[in-house]
Amino acid sequence: MEQCEKIQEMLIPYLNRFLTDSECSMVITHIAHCKDCKDEVALLIKLDNVFEKTLVEVPKDIQLNAFDKIKMQEIKEVSIFNSDVLKTIINKNFYSPMLALYILSFALLPIKKLIKLALDNV
Amino acid sequence: MNEQELIREAVKGSHSDFESLMSNYMKDLYNYILIRLKSKDDAMDVMQEVMLGVYQSIKYFNGDSSFKTWLFSITRRKIADYYREQYKNETEPIDNYLNSLSYNNEFDLLSKISIQAVIDSLPLDEKELLYLIFTQQLSHKEIEEITNIPIGTIKSKMYYIKAKLKLLLNDDRRN
How far apart (Å, rounded) are the C-alpha atoms in residues B175 and B158? Predict the structure, then answer.
């Protein structure tokens, strides 16, 4: 009886191929002469087959839309980041250097045009 | 790319590798979700939450458990979150709630006697356990990590489920 309890605990790992070779031999030797344990194996195999057959395929719309919330979250994070950058620029601490950069970028424009004109006339 | 490489690239932020990685598990996760949720719309919601949850926490996956076990833990929590949202006034710890939740399909007495019909009549927590053992081939230790049910309790539950199945199958044959 104790042996049966021990073997029956090993049956699922046995069916899932988790046992070592010596453990498998122990199970096989036991169920060869124990009707109760053999019936137990038959029940477990039936359960295994039933669960295999009941698996359903993932519907196409779920496959296509499964990652939508990730995309929405990223869009949200980018929007928050952009508004944080704007707030930082407008903030006094960064106002002057950022404004200087902004003005410089416009100041460079006429210089760029002059260089282009010069190169065109060469 | 093998799974380890996909995980590594997903942690670095590769969307395509993340999606490839998760696509391999989508069917398993979907069928797991369906044990608790019968509506396809609800299953879609939970599946999206699972994907987002995994995406946000994949950088914390440290390999202490298998990736599959880790995924199923997250999925179970997302299902619990779904129920928490549906039943906002519940104060019971969510694992207790999930482990006690059951609804029984009306056993169709006119249907052909089959082990499938008997399984369909089992409570949801028992169906979940059978799914994790037979379809996902998870060990008791892994199931303990996913469900927070101690191994001793899992073994007792399996003993009880098998005894019940044998009894129900014998009753069906007599009927």
Answer: 25
Which of chain B's residues have a Cβ under 8 Å away from the Cβ of A40?
A: 162
A92 to chain B, closest Cα gap in Å: 34
Contacts of B103 (CB under 8 A, 6+ apart): B123, B124
ipTM of this predicted structure: 0.73
Token digits for B52? 């987002």
B161 in reach of chain A (CB within 8 A): no
Amino acid, res. B78: K
Entry pTM: 0.73
The pLDDT value recorded for residue B104 is 37
B162 touches chain A (CB under 8 A): yes
Give the pLDDT score at B92. 53
> B51 Cβ partners below 8 Å, 6+ apart?
A66, A67, A69, A70, B22
The token pair at B15 is: 């969307």
Q: Which two tokens stand for residue A90?
A: 């407008």
**DSSP-based helix, strand, coil % in chain B, nearest 5:** 75, 0, 25
Q: In sequence order, which residues have a C-beta less than 8 Å from that of residue B55 and are 6 or more positions away?
A: A70, B18
Check residue B132 and report its DSSP letter: I
Task: State the alpha helices, DSSP H only, in A34-91.
Answer: 35-54, 60-65, 68-90
Residues from A in contact with B at Cβ < 8 Å? 9, 12-13, 16, 18, 40, 43-44, 46-48, 50-59, 61-63, 65-70, 73
Q: How many other CB atoms sit within 10 Å of the CB of residue A53?
A: 8
Write down the pLDDT at residue B149: 92
- Rounded to whole angstroms, how far apart are CA atoms A16 and B146? 19
Taking only the tens place, the pLDDT of each residue in B118-139 is 888 888 999 999 999 999 999 8
C-alpha span between A68 and B19 (Å, rounded): 11
Q: How far apart are CA B121 and CA B124, in angstroms?
A: 9
